[in-house]
Automatic annotation (TrEMBL):
PROSITE patterns: PROTEIN_KINASE_DOM, PROTEIN_KINASE_TYR
Protein name, as recorded: Kinase-like protein
Record InterPro entries: Kinase-like_dom_sf, Prot_kinase_dom, Ser-Thr/Tyr_kinase_cat_dom, Ser/Thr_Kinases-Pseudokinases, Tyr_kinase_AS, Tyr_kinase_cat_dom
Domain Protein kinase span(s) in chain numbering: 143-414, 440-705
Residues in the signal sequence: none
Molecular function via GO: ATP binding; protein serine/threonine kinase activity; protein tyrosine kinase activity
């Protein structure tokens, strides 16, 4: 405890005050150890002592460093003993102790060993209790954009004005809470607390959190400075002469900071889209939603890698050893960083010549790396033989053979004179998307009635709206990406194709509207949602009728030489009358084309001719009507079982290998799928495209099935 003899008279009262408060905290922890069920009343009488300690230390830390030493020693001595009991705290008691922990973290030297233990315990408490220290809360009015401007896999970003500055508000997708709201909150708490502990000019600054009652959003929002220059890819596209080597060196330095932090931090999502450019035209790394601490002490573990980004993932994450979970590491970050270097010098995603993520996974499985870019494929200056050799070291199959981030930074310093960041004038961008055809422009006839997306899809978000003379409608917005040209192409293709379609089993297209520089596609509102949601609510629905309607809509598309490209239960909507309607027509392409294949994610529904590469025995042939037939077979299985294809296989990468090896899903019992239906599935799964029937033939075979036992199944 603090010794009054070593302080001034003015500080003696502070010593006594802190000693008493910390003594009471210790007494509560002791009571937890001796009587875990009898501590509630005692703690409720003293939990404000925790806040009192924080307040006093915050005002006297500079003038009375011995108080700080005693406070840190208090944690060093008692924390290992009381850890398991601390994790029993909940509610206000947990929040109070978390404030003490945060103070201990702030007052402990960065490389001091126990600081890592404090961070791990703080994050474990937040994950367990789903609360955050109130010291992270910000106050003040917020004026935010009416809709989110950017979307990622888990979060949406809003632009706002707060305390006289422009900031970004990051909040989870509202649709994510439909399946597991507690998981969303735990994930948000983890990201907030990890980000809060990191301090480096190469990291996006964490300002604090704003509560929902201030922002009007469903969840608390993480506040950070607004980066007007966007992502590093957007920056170099706009300024092709910028020094890319300098940018890469700065990114490698901040990665080195994370990897040598106490405890080490694995980012887990190192991509150009997560590297922003600040007002000084320097890169800052952002998005710690997937990050975790490399330690065996913390109870925190990374989320499933199904949420990862395949083209940047290291082989050991896609193909872990049998019986083991994927284990992100500093080395897997460096594998991703090698992809970032390639991405920055080509301005394309890794494996750009591969149309699907499935083909990429097979390349990684067979240890095939992206090809070296040549000629016009290389953008900017600085791409050399030595740099390419170092990139290939990052892609070593053995993680132990990959260089560290500091070694990469040193390599750049050795090969190049240390460059200065080039200051360039960045003009104001007009990021509006023009409507592809004004004759379909419904602006003024439709209003957006929901502030938040009601459905969050792989490529788009759905808002609700009201249309004059129609009533409730769905407004479909493609999620913004780093490539606005690609997004505009997707929107234009959607409108040009979708508006020509007229069929009872195709989702009708009403038109488009422009709201705040965003283009929304307008279609009927489907209260029954998608097929899988509908079947869960109505398990006795006639599945044969549903599949026949899907087959009819797909046959219609094929007659027009249109490939759907992403057929599955989630892309089948159910009308008010129970009719199946195919959606996501904007992602289809002309027969044999692959324009939108780059964004395809539904690999469990894909055939071997989509997942293969040219080196395989069965070549990649691109999306076709035949690949749609394969997907229809998987959709039959999905609709009858209520589960995704290959539901007994956890990793998508394993599913890809099975498909390319000619292995089919396990057959359910005959009371789930009868012989006639199963035979249709198997025929749709012909290994080569030529071995599969046409949709016209499939539709005829469905019409022959009349047994009542096959017309409905119970989920």
């Amino acid at each position: 405890m603090i010794q009054p003899s070593h302080v001034t008279a003015g500080g003696r009262a502070i010593c006594d005050d802190l000693n008493l408060a910390m003594k009471r905290v210790t007494e509560v922890l002791v009571s937890l150890r001796t009587d875990p069920n009898g501590w509630e009343g005692e703690w409720r009488r003293v939990h404000m002592q925790c806040f009192h300690v924080v307040t006093v230390l915050g005002t006297c830390a500079n003038d009375h460093p011995n108080h700080v030493d005693s406070f840190v020693n208090f944690f060093d001595l008692d924390l290992p003993i009381h850890r398991s009991y601390i994790l029993q705290l909940v509610g206000e008691e947990a929040e109070a102790f978390m404030c003490l922990l945060q103070m201990a973290i702030d007052l402990t030297p960065v490389n001091y060993g126990t600081r890592g233990l404090y961070i791990e315990l703080l994050m474990d408490m937040a994950t367990h209790c789903m609360v955050l220290p109130r010291s992270l809360n910000l106050d003040g009015e917020v004026d935010k954009s009416d809709s989110a401007l950017f979307f990622g896999g888990f979060g949406a970003v809003w632009k706002a004005r707060w305390q006289g500055r422009t900031v970004a508000l990051k909040t989870p997708h509202t649709a994510l809470d439909l399946s597991d709201p507690h998981r969303v909150i735990r994930r948000l708490c983890r990201e907030v607390l990890l980000w809060r502990q990191l301090r480096h000019p190469g990291l996006l600054e964490f300002l604090g959190i704003l509560r929902p009652e201030i922002t009007g959003l469903r969840y608390m929002a993480i506040v950070s400075p607004w980066m007007e220059h966007g992502t590093i890819i957007e920056f170099v596209r706009e300024h092709p002469d910028v020094d890319r080597i300098s940018l890469l060196r700065q990114v490698s330095v901040v990665l080195s900071y994370l990897h040598t932090h106490e405890p080490p931090v694995v980012h887990r999502d190192v991509r150009c889209v997560n590297i922003l450019i600040n007002e000084n035209h320097s890169p800052v790394l952002c998005d710690f939603g997937l990050s975790w601490i490399e330690s065996g002490f913390s109870a925190l573990r990374p989320d499933t890698l199904q949420h990862g980004n395949t083209r940047w993932l290291a082989p050991e994450l896609l193909f872990p050893a049998d019986g083991q979970e994927p284990a992100p590491s500093l080395a897997s970050d460096m594998y991703s960083f090698g992809m970032v270097v390639l991405e920055l010098f080509t301005e394309c995603p890794p494996f750009a010549k591969r149309a699907t993520d499935g083909a990429v996974v097979m390349d990684i499985h067979y240890n095939r790396h992206p090809q070296r870019p040549e000629g016009d494929e290389v953008k900017g200056d600085g791409f050399s033989d030595h740099l390419w050799a170092f990139i290939e070291k990052c892609w070593e199959r053995d993680p132990l053979r990959r260089p560290s981030a500091s070694e990469f930074a040193n390599h750049l310093d050795t090969e190049f004179d240390e460059p200065q960041v080039q200051i360039v004038e960045v003009p104001i961008q007009d990021d509006s998307l023009n409507s592809p055809d004004d004759s379909w422009n419904l602006t003024g006839q439709v209003t957006k009635s929901s502030d938040f997306p009601v459905v969050h899809g792989v490529h788009h978000d759905i808002y609700s709206g009201l249309m004059v003379g129609i009533g409730k409608v769905a407004l479909r917005l493609f999620r913004a990406s780093g490539n606005n040209d690609l997004m505009q192409k997707v929107v234009q293709n959607e409108v040009m194709t979708w508006r020509t379609l007229r069929h009872a089993n195709i989702l009708p297209f009403y038109g488009v509207i422009n709201i705040e520089s965003h283009t929304f596609s307008v279609s009927p509102w489907m209260e029954n949602q998608d097929a899988m949601t509908y079947l869960k609510a109505q398990p006795h629905i006639n599945r044969l009728k549903l599949l026949t309607e899907v087959a009819s809509g797909l046959e219609y598309l094929h007659l027009l030489d249109i490939v759907h490209g992403d057929l599955r239960g989630g892309n089948i909507l159910i009308s008010e009358l129970g009719t199946a309607c195919l959606q996501n027509i904007g992602t289809v392409v002309a027969s044999g084309g692959t324009d939108f294949a780059m964004t395809a994610q539904s690999i469990r529904w894909m055939p071997p001719d989509i997942l293969a590469t040219e080196e395989d025995d069965h070549p990649f042939t691109g999306f076709s009507t035949c690949s749609d037939v394969w997907g229809f077979g998987m959709t039959i299985l999905e609709i009858h079982t209520g589960a995704t294809p290959f539901s007994d296989v956890k990793l998508d990468a394993t599913v890809m290998r099975k498909i390319c090896q000619g292995k089919l899903p396990t057959r359910p019992t005959t009371d789930v799928i009868g012989n006639d239906i199963w035979n249709i599935c198997v025929s749709c799964w012909g290994f080569t495209p030529q071995a599969r029937p046409t949709m016209k033939s499939v539709l005829q075979r469905l019409g022959y099935i009349s047994s009542p036992s096959l017309m409905a199944t119970t989920a």
